[in-house]
């Protein structure tokens, strides 16, 4: 039984290590995800993500917040970039976590007062 627990723990640690390495900032140049929608689609995910990819480290900050539930890593520049994204983009950018955009908006309002409203 103890060997099974050790094997399970080893697998979990290996997976966490792989995830941590894949999200290490500065290791790879960030590229926007390719759109899964046709070119004439009303939602252009590349356009949605572009503001965040233009701020160095912003995408990493957001992903870290999504996975940890903590927003302390989201900086001023990232919050400003977030405020420029069309509100229609968020459900398509984070389809598995619909509560993330409003939580981020709340957090950014504390970091950067008087942020412009979403388009």
From TrEMBL:
Stored PANTHER family: EGG CELL-SECRETED PROTEIN 1.4, EGG CELL-SECRETED-LIKE PROTEIN (DUF1278)
GO cellular component: extracellular region; vesicle
BP terms from Gene Ontology: double fertilization forming a zygote and endosperm; regulation of double fertilization forming a zygote and endosperm; regulation of protein localization to cell surface
Residues annotated as domain Prolamin-like: 47-108
Keywords of the record: Signal
Pfam families: Prolamin_like
Protein name, entry field: Prolamin-like domain-containing protein
